[in-house]
Specification:
The chain is of the alpha/beta class and about 300 residues long. About 40% of the residues lie in helices and about 20% in strands. The strands form two sheets. Strands 1, 2, 3, 4, 5, 6, 7, 9, 11, 12 and 13 form an eleven-stranded mixed β-sheet that branches. Strands 8-10 form a two-stranded antiparallel ribbon. β1, α1 and β2 form a beta-alpha-beta unit.
């Protein structure tokens, strides 16, 4: 019986889905099943070929539901104790999923485990962060573009320490292993987020429900980055800012915070205009650390 259900969300991702499946086969020795949730309006040959592999099943949504909603659809009726939610443009390093699952023995109270994520060129993506506070969030949003190593961004992204296995406020949704019991206990991803911040929100709700989130830097995956969003980058920048406003507004939902919500809306609106004019990364701060800082995995 499968121990893992791998839910991979795709959008015109046929050219990267084959390599994803190839790397997945080397990532774990445990039996697994794959659900490909295709948000594309039309099938492509690569997705068709991947769906025909043993243990794979294709779920077509008929339209772009967004990342979190599609992941929820792929997790429905899972009978496995573990869920892997990942982008299609992920390449698993050999043994990486086994490394994450081994960590569950050390962290029995954890509901989610995240790997170290590298970008092409050997850059370490900050995939495990604290939940955004108002002060750090403002500093990161305002200064990240022009000064990516500013103190607020560095503190938020935990870039002042050597990567070690530890708890985090949230883990990148591009690849994480979730205890199915925990995922179902919080009703999965919040489907009001189309793209972006759904992983932050999930981390917050898992924490409120008493589950830990654990970063395991000895498990490594490579993220090509932006494959399914590069065709609609302007739309994604708008979606990112909309999601940030939704997340922050919910943290300050009481009537007394109305002036703050107005200021947040104005500030994010100005930030959006700058992002659209500069056509830059909506996240606001590029990754700057080398993957050489990562510890060597036990399976390396």
């Amino acid at each position: 019986m499968p121990q893992l259900r791998v839910v991979v969300v795709t959008y015109h991702s046929g050219e990267v889905l084959g390599p994803f499946m190839d790397s997945l086969a080397k990532a774990t020795s445990r039996p697994y099943e794959v659900v490909i949730v295709d948000n594309s309006p039309m099938m492509d040959a690569g997705t068709t070929a991947a769906a025909g592999r043993p243990g794979a099943r294709l779920l077509r949504t008929g339209r772009n539901l967004g990342y979190g909603t599609a992941a929820n659809r792929g997790a429905v009726n899972a009978g496995t104790p573990w869920l892997v939610v990942a982008n299609a443009d992920i390449a698993f390093m050999p043994g990486s999923l086994d490394e994450l699952l081994d960590a569950s023995d050390r962290w029995p109270g954890a509901g989610a485990f995240g790997p170290a994520i590298t970008n092409p060129g050997g850059v370490l993506y900050p995939s495990a962060r604290d939940l955004p506070s108002l002060g750090r969030g403002i500093g990161h949003a305002l200064l990240g573009w022009c000064w990516p190593t500013n103190p607020w961004t560095t503190a938020y992204r935990r870039e002042h320490t050597v990567p070690v296995e530890t708890t985090a406020g949230w883990l990148s949704g591009s690849c994480q292993v979730l205890r199915r019991q925990a995922f179902e206990a919080v009703d999965g991803f919040d489907e009001t987020y189309f793209m972006f911040m759904e992983d932050v929100d999930l981390g917050r709700r898992l924490g409120l429900a008493g589950w830990q989130l654990v970063y395991v830097p000895t498990a490594v995956v490579e993220h090509l980055g932006g494959h399914s969003t590069k065709r609609t980058s302007r739309r994604m920048v708008i979606a990112h800012h909309r999601s940030m406003l939704r997340y922050l507004s919910r943290q300050y939902a009481a009537p007394r915070y109305l002036p703050l919500r107005v200021l947040l809306g104005l500030g994010l609106g100005l930030r959006l205009l700058v992002a659209l004019v500069l056509a830059t990364d909506s996240a606001g701060a590029r990754a700057t650390r080398s993957a050489d800082v990562l510890p060597r995995g036990r399976r390396a």
